[in-house]
Structures are given as structure tokens and as C-alpha cells.
Amino acid sequence: TGGKRFDYGQSPTVIGGYGEAIYNNYRDSSVKDQADLRRFVLFFGHKFNDRLRFNSELEIEHSWIEGGEGGEVAMEQAYLEYAISDKINTRAGLMLMPIGITNETHEPPTFYGVERNQVESLIIPSTWRELGLSAQGEALPGLEYNVGISTSLNAGKFKKPENGLRESRTAGGEAAANDLGFFGALNYRGVPGLLVGGSVFSGNTGQDGASNAALKGVAARVTLWDLHANYTVGGLDLQALYARGTMNDADKVSAATGVVAPKSLYGWYTQAAYHVWKKGDFDVAPFIRYERYNTQASVADGYASDPLNNETVTTMGVNFKLHPQVVLKADIQNFKTDNKKDRYNLGIGYMF
Amino acid sequence: TGGKRFDYGQSPTVIGGYGEAIYNNYRDSSVKDQADLRRFVLFFGHKFNDRLRFNSELEIEHSWIEGGEGGEVAMEQAYLEYAISDKINTRAGLMLMPIGITNETHEPPTFYGVERNQVESLIIPSTWRELGLSAQGEALPGLEYNVGISTSLNAGKFKKPENGLRESRTAGGEAAANDLGFFGALNYRGVPGLLVGGSVFSGNTGQDGASNAALKGVAARVTLWDLHANYTVGGLDLQALYARGTMNDADKVSAATGVVAPKSLYGWYTQAAYHVWKKGDFDVAPFIRYERYNTQASVADGYASDPLNNETVTTMGVNFKLHPQVVLKADIQNFKTDNKKDRYNLGIGYMF
Amino acid sequence: TGGKRFDYGQSPTVIGGYGEAIYNNYRDSSVKDQADLRRFVLFFGHKFNDRLRFNSELEIEHSWIEGGEGGEVAMEQAYLEYAISDKINTRAGLMLMPIGITNETHEPPTFYGVERNQVESLIIPSTWRELGLSAQGEALPGLEYNVGISTSLNAGKFKKPENGLRESRTAGGEAAANDLGFFGALNYRGVPGLLVGGSVFSGNTGQDGASNAALKGVAARVTLWDLHANYTVGGLDLQALYARGTMNDADKVSAATGVVAPKSLYGWYTQAAYHVWKKGDFDVAPFIRYERYNTQASVADGYASDPLNNETVTTMGVNFKLHPQVVLKADIQNFKTDNKKDRYNLGIGYMF
Q: Do A80 and B348 touch (CB under 8 A)?
């Protein structure tokens, strides 16, 4: 969870950062190869006193932005946290939704593969952050909770079914706030090497028609939940996740936006990695990941899913760490349905 | 004044920041509620030697910017300062205009209310910064002066009368510089708890038609001045400000831009707060503020003011400090003329 | 070279910065004067261990960006570097091309004149950075090499012949990567006060039509090379540079983009400065620079060069350093061909 990353030594103000550069080489020559400084992120944190802190992340995506073109400059996090007691920490501000594994822990050295997994990009729309209030802590030995209320998605901004609900995120910028959401997560880390957890978010998304007048009076509740596990034993690193979302009033959202909104969407993946070689700071770990997902698993009557959104992805590759915080990556990705996406990827990443 | 904020201990380079997240809930259901990471600002300063320093503020407004949408990324300040003597400090670069109280001191814990006051947003267009040269210091014991020359407003960019002259600011980015301005401010702090001061800015704004050819040869001088006072005694915190601006050639600016430019605009407010409860770092202070302003107090012959721009606002609320640098805020705002703006607001803010 | 700038004392993370504000006053009244916070740049670096480091530069140009207007936010550098041995350092990520003098060393106190020289802006498109892999070090005593492969220019984005190849740069943001480039540089610093060097970059730029379908199958190789020297002796500071570029398939690029692409472009300058007065940190150095360049030295058959692109510029002025890292500048520029550009300039700059 965000705040723990910062090591406030004697200085009350800390800076850090992470980033990644990626090269995608597509098998199909009609799809153009690309190199991208995908993310450059800076952390800024300040400790006001032992109970009160500020944490933030500022991100530049795709290297530059000018004249309405290029990438994005965005806050990923910016929240105050106050520890009421040993068991209850509270936060207010722009915060990462505690859904899944990747959304909160997304620095390149922490995950396998050049690209983040698809399920936690398209079903769980990482990096997903909302303005909200939350409380978190250790409820029982090893059992962490995180609950809160926050701004919700905005169905009026739904645009690309192939991206799940990504375009509906408001990311804390003049966010429609007629409908709010709530979230809760439980994660158990009581056994060394094991993480087992689950989470849920639910909120109306019609926003009283704030972004699309045709959605006035439409609730369009979205509920998204996941179950996940990670187990590290010996040199083996195993991970699995299942996520599922539903949208009420998908017929009205489809009619209002002119794109086919999902009544339901889901995805899951399993992943195995093995640390084959370690020497000093070096660590080489091949991995394989298998993903199934459908961003339009079901749609409203009278609408049709695009079969390209029902996808199976296999990723095989290797993470080579030069240092626990610096990684070189290479992998091959096979898309069963839309094989124009087949590619190999190279990447470098760091965090500090 | 900006430079004092930085505490250069043993490190020649310092970072800091401030920010605020705001929730607006409007009484009229036709106006949509909103949550916003209004401002995220970072300070970067460097001390070259005991006389020479650099100070800067980089701001992200409204959380993100992408594809021509979203908020703003902008420099709020970026200037070098050189102390010629104990009495004369000089600055060069992008600097805050020393007009009013809020323009130079705008960190959320330093003012009452979730939103900055209207008069110092619409009559004094805070955060107002220009590229310029200035000198400042203590002329007599307790009496601070600040004088300078700078880029001026650009009448060719005048756009929304309801926002006063805000859109005419150039903010240091490829600013038209055919017409320059000058400014001066005096502030007396010789009595503990008291601040009494005034300021003036004056400059032509036609810019030889740089942004609007119809303004070629038009002077369109803008003069803006204010008087202000703050008095803190016991638990009481009293503040008042009067600001007035005039624009010459308002007829020509109106004709050239197609919007009704003000011949004059003015506003004032009074504010009282009382620290009802303090404990450790905690400090609770209810407040009330009464504002009158008109962004089109008079207009050129043949043009008509929009009566909605003649407004009276009452704001009642409370600032709850968790720490001298961290504040929670809540208030209710009543707009006498345009009651669609009636709302309650919640906010959090910090500075470090 | 970028990484050396950072002085990692006891802290593994360092920040720094540089910037400049510029005032341009044109002789011809039809050209509007301008003041601009041209560049504000922050450095962030981290040392993971004695061999492994991260260096980056984040830039805001022209003070602000909002709603598709204003300036630019961009990464200038963001690379990891790993020292394989004393003789071989390697880098991966977004890096400055080691072409010419200014592209890698561009902080305002390091060059004469308010504006960077024209040849290293229009012939060598500074600040030119690409995503790539490189190796650098000292091959022989005093002789530094730097070689690498990188993303290349993108001819499909060629737009303004008067700017040379500037618009074809991809700057690491979703860069077309069907065609890659390679670069090499040698610089000799073995004699105190002397630098003699040269460099070359070459790469196809058609990018298989990624940005302009009419360039599918067109190689459009660009080769750009330079020779440069700097000699500092007594109070004298002498510098000269020659740069030349060629583009194959200029006819096809011209046809595809609708603008007249150069078959060749070239430029050179000589510059002399003399430190007339030094006292403490102060240092006053008048200078003169003479530049010749043509961004359309030759074009494809059937196309015509714009004679305005064949230019001779004389710049005379003075750099006044308040401190080795802070400079005030003033100069006069005379453009022989396009005398609408004649102007005097004032500037301030810093680096830390």
C-alpha cells in the first residue's frame, strides 16, 4: 500500500520514482512497431508528524505532450493519511483503488512481463484512482483491510468496449460526483510467502447525466470484484487472479453513448515464474502467464458483443534484474482471437 | 513573499509543495456536483550563495491533462533573486504580482474557506504571475515595499466578462511584450498581529494587436489597485480587502473581441474567524466572509453589463487544522444574484 | 555527458534543474515582441549502486499548457546506465544524441547568447533525444567514444522546411520503430582547454508508412554528421562547428508530405568570446558569433528551395555571470536574408 514505500529517514520530505521504456515488435507487418517511454513517475512524500503524512505520484506517459497531441500528465495519487490508532489508518484525497494486485503495486520491477497483464488493465482498469476517504489497517494478525467511499465511474464517458471501463474513470479531475462509490478489500499475509485476498467496488455511474444528458436519472450501477493469490516458495513464484464486473442499465448506457456497454465483463489469469539464477544483485526469472478475458461477456438485449473482445493471451518471457529495483524484460505474446496483436516485447524498468 | 518560505538548512536544494482536493455540492440539481484534485504544486528552490537564490513552483491543476482535455500544467513562479544589500532584494523571472493578500500567499492552510475568495479570483485574477524585474525590502521598520516592471495583460485574449480579466493573463508563456506594466506594493507589519497594505498595477494591454489585429494601435491601459488589512488578536482573525480596476478603450476591446469588456470592475470583502478550540496541533476556527463585487461595474457606451456579474456572496464555514500545515475545511456559500451557484463545499489542503 | 552532472554525495537520490527566461525585441514593428519562460527543467537521478544509476530530465517549455494550447511538457532524458568496466559504460532509455556540442550540453550558463545557436537548432535539431542503447567511455587517454542504436526520425512527420528536420523527431513518445538508427561520436579532450570532435547519425526514416501511408516501402535514409572544436586559452573562448545532413528519397518525402523536403542541409558557425572582467563569482564575457546555414541546401528535382532558408546570422552580445551557475545575457542578432528576424534579446538562465 502506497504509504509504506517511503522510507522517511531523518528528512521529512522524500522523493522517489519509477518508470519503464518499452519496445513492441508486432508479427503482422500491418501493425507498426513502436518504442515508447511508457511511464515516468515521480513520488513526493512528506511526514508532518508521526501520525500525519502526505504521499503523491506524478506521472508523464508517452514522454511528451504538446498542442493536444502526445501523452498524458497526470496525478496517480495525492492523499493525506492520518493514523488514528495502530489499527486504523485513514486517508483522504486521490487514492488507488485497492482492487486486484497490480492496481496498487505497479512498479515495473514488481511484475513479470514487459506489459502489465491484460486482465488487470481491461477488467480492472489499472491504474485506477479516485478521490475518496478510506480506512485501512491490520484487523487480525496478517489480515489487512481497506474500506472507503470515493468518486465513482462516469458512464457518460464510456467509449471503447475493447478497453472495458477504462474511459469511464475520472481520475480526480473535475470528476462528476453526483454518484459516489464504495470499496472494500481484504488481504491475508499471515503465512510467509503467501498472499490471498479479494476486493469489491460498487457505485452508480450515471452521474445524473453530468457528461451525457441522456443518462439523467439512470443509475447504471457498476460492481467489480476480484479474488487473487500469490505464493512464493523456494525459487517459485505463483500468482492467480479472477475479476468480474457487472453494469446495470447497460441498455441505457449503450443507447446514450452509442457504443455497446457490457452487462458483464470478466477475466482471469494464472502465472508461474522461477528464479533460475541469482548472483549478487542479479536475478533471472523466466515466467509464463495465461489469461482469459472478455470485456463484453454479456450485453443488453438487442446489442451484440464484438467477438474480438473475447480473448486468450499467452505470455512467455524472462525478467532479468540487475538490482532489486532495476529490471530488463523480454517476452513473446500470443493473442488467440486477435492475432494482429501477436508480438514480442522488450522493456526496461526501475523504481527508487 | 515567495522566497522566505524555503528553509535552506544545510542542503542548497529544497523541495516543498502544497495542494488541495475539493468537493462542491450544489443546491440546484441542474448544476452537477463535482470532486476535484484542484491543485497539486511542487516547490523547487536552490541557494547558489548567501545572496543568490532560485525559487519555483510547478502546478498541476485538475489532476490530469491529455489530448487537449483535462486541466493545466503551469509554472506559477520561476525567478532568480539577488540581494544587493540588506534593504534591497532583486528578482528576475516569472513572479507573483504583489497585489492583494491571496495572490502571493495562497497555500490552502493560509486562507479560510474551501475556495479562495471570489474578489481575489475575479477582480484580482489570482494566481496572477508575470515575467518581470522587481526590487523589494524593508524601507522603514515594519514597512515592506515591492516595485517592478513586468509583462502586462493582453486585451486580445479577453474572453469571459464573468471572470474579470483572468483570460487576459499571459502567465509567462510566449507572452506578448509590446506593452509592459509596472507594479508597486506597500505592506506595514510593524505592529504585532497587524497587516495594512495596498498595491497598484498599471499597464497597456493592446499589445499592438499581437493576439487580435483589431487592437493594433489601441492602448487599452488597465490599472488595478487594492487596499487590504488583516488583524489577529486573541483568537480573533479579521481581514478586509477592497480592489478596483479600470480599462481604457473598453469600447475598442469590446468591439475587437466581441465580448463586453469592463470599463471598471471592483470588489471588496470582510471576513472574521475565531479559533474556538486548540489542542496540540489541532485548531478549529469557524469563519464568516461577506463579499460584494461586479466584474462589469461599468461598460462602454452602447454596451450592457450582464446583471449576473453583480454579485454578493456570503460564506460560512470552518477550518479544522490537523497540523499547522494540514487543514480540513467545510463551508456553505450563498450567491445572492446567481443562486445556481449556491453550494456547500468540503476540502482538504496541505503545504510543506 | 548527462550522467556526470550529478554529484551523488551521501544521498542516493539527487535533484537539480536549469531554466531560462527570454525577452525578444524585434526591429521590424510587424513582428511582435515576446517574453517567455522558455524552459524550466528538473533533473532527477538515483544511484542504485556504484555501477548502476538512473538519470532523467523533465521539461516544461513556454510556462504552461492547457486545452491543447501553450507549451510542452516533455522528458528530455530518462535512461539507466550500467558501468560494465572502467572503459565501458552502457545506457538504455531516452537519451540525448551525442551530435554536436549543444545537444548534450545545453544549460544556459554553458553557452553564449540568449538563444542557442541556429545551426545546432535547425541543422542539428537540439534538443534531440531518442530511445536507444549505447556504450561510451574513454577509448584512449583523452579520447571519448559514444556509440549506439536508437529510434530514428520519422519522415512522415516532416512539416516545416525552415526548421530542418525538427518536426521529424519522435522524442520517445510512441515512436515509430520500424526503422532504427545508429550513432557514433568521438571527442578528444587530451590537451587542457581543447575539445575536438565529430559525430554521425544515420537511419531510415520512412517507418514503413507508420505516420504517412504514402511512405510505405520508402527508406528515406537521413545521415547527419558534424565536426566541432572548442579551445579555451587565457581569457579567450573559441568555438566552431560544421554540420551537414542528407535525406535519400527526398522526392518521395516531398510528395508524401506536401512540403519540400531537403536532399541536403548544412550549417556552420564560428564564435569568439573574451572574459574581460572577473571578480569573485562575477564574470563578464562579450562574444561574437557568425553562422551560415541552409535548411534546403538542395532539394529533389522538380522542387524549389525557399531562398529564406539560406541564412547568415551575426550575433554580438555579452554573458554576465553572477555565479558560475547563473547568467544574465544580452545580444543583438542580424539575419542577412530574412531581416524580419533582426532583434535584440535579453535573457536570464541558471543551472543547479
A: yes
